[in-house]
Each structure stands twice: as C-alpha cells, then as structure tokens.
Amino acid sequence: MNQNQQLELSKEKVPLFKFILIGDQSVGKSSIVKRYKNEEFNYNIKATIGVEFIKKFVQVDKGLIEIQLWDTAGQEQFRSVIRSFYRGAAAVFIVYSVNLKESFDQLSIWLNEIEYHAHSEIIKVLVGNKCDLQREVQKEEAESLMNNNNFSLFFETSAKTGENIDEAFIQTAKLVLLKYFSSDSFRQATKVNKKSADPINIIKSSNKNESFEGQSPQQQQHQDSNQSGCC
After folding, report:
1. What is the DSSP letter of 44?
2. CATH number of residue 104's parent domain
3. Is the torsion defined by CA of 122, 123, 126, 130 positive or negative?
4. Contact call for residues 193 and 16 (beta carbons, < 8 A)
5. Is 6 among the domain residues?
6. What is the per-residue pLDDT for 213?
7. One short Pfam family name for this protein (predicted)?
C-alpha cells in the first residue's frame, strides 16, 4: 500500500460532522463557503438554488475531522426543502449582513426554523458578514441577540477580505469535537455517515416522512400532534 492509499484509508476513519449555513438571500453565505474552501472571493457569485455543499478535512488540535459544509438558499420558496438538511447537523451558522438591517431583523424567523427542525443540542453560531462595509447593525445589537438566544459563538466576518472566516470554522469545529466526546445525546444526534449525508439520500428520506435523527421527545411529540390533527 502506497502513502496516498494510506492517507485515503485514514481519512475514511475520521469523524464526519455536518455544518449548515442559513440566513436571508444575499448575506454572503456562498461567498463565505467559497472563501473558506478556496481562499477566493467572487463579486459575481450566483444565488444558491436549493442546497449546495462542500467537504473539507480540518486539523483540530492534534486530530483530523471531516466537515460537510452545507450552503442553503435564502429564498422563502426553498425553505421547505432546506428543513430536511438539518438532520444530523452538528452546528448551524446563522448569517446576516452587518450592512443590511433587514437581514438581522429576519433572524427570529431562522431561529424558529432551528427550534422546530434541528435537534436540541445543535451548536448555534451567529455570523455578521460583510464587516468590511458600512454597517447598519451594531456589534452590541448582535451580542445582545447572541446572549438572549443561547448562541455558542459569534463572529463578524468578511468573505471579501477573509477576516474571521477560518477562525469561525476552526473554533466551531473545536467546540463540536469537545461536545461530541462529552455528550452521548449530541453524539447520537450528529451520527451521520457518507451515505446518509448525501444530498440525494436526504431528499429521499424526507419524501418518506422519516423522523429527524436526534429529535428531542418534545419535538417528536410536536410533530406527531401536527400530523394527527383532524383539520
């Protein structure tokens, strides 16, 4: 077995975690992903249609993990599709643009989406993107939102300059790994493999109305009560 084959074999054994980015259209989610993956910025990036994802191996302290980073569309018409992709996610990045107050005001809607469709222990990360532009949202406002809604981390980033992009994902990966080894329920809720995390399989699973992996009993009860209503 040559060195490249050994490397590929070792990568098959590393922990796999799903990270998902949500937020309104045009807040820069795709630009964040592109900057993180390729260290580049494109002014003419197209709007995401549905969901796209990349994968990346990341060194966390002395260990190696694999991240599947899911970039979701911000348009309302795609929201029902996006809900399927919360399954098994270890962390969710809720993104707004610091130069667009409306995107910040809409965060309550995205927080409700997380409440109903993600497992209860998902790590929430607040991201204020486009911090290189003139701001409409003050940092103190975002910090208040963070403290009042149980976010684990908060970053102001710029996909254009690269500010805090790597740091946001590295710090989140460290927190996810720590929680993975300290919480059995989190470990079960984020248990995915390469086959079950494939976009086609997630959509197929959603179409069969399967329950979300890692749902709390309260969430399952809420789902069941909705399905059993007579009207």
Report:
1. T
2. 3.40.50.300
3. negative
4. yes
5. no
6. 35
7. Ras
Calculate mean pLDDT across residues 44-70: 75
User: Does residue 64 or residue 106 have the better pLDDT?
Assistant: 106
The SS3 of residue 165 is helix
Beta bridge partners of 96: 128
For every residue of 166-182, DSSP letters joined together read HHHHHHHHHHHHHHHHH
- Distances 79 to 16, 24, 85, 114, 194 between C-alpha atoms, Å: 25, 11, 10, 12, 24
Kindly state whether residue 109 falls inside one of the protein's structural domains: yes
What Cα–Cα distance (Å) separates residue 190 from each residue in 120, 124, 129? 11, 14, 26
**62's tokens:** 């002395």
Determine the Cα–Cα distance for residues 151 and 135; give it in Å rounded to an integer: 22
Distance CA 229, CA 19 (A): 33
Using the predicted structure, report yes or no on whether residue 66 has a pLDDT greater than 80. Answer: yes
Tally the domains of the chain: 1
Q: Which residues contact 214 (CB under 8 A, 6 or more apart)?
A: 87, 88, 119, 121, 185, 188, 189, 190, 191
Which residue, 54, 81, 79, 73, is CA-closest to 203? 81
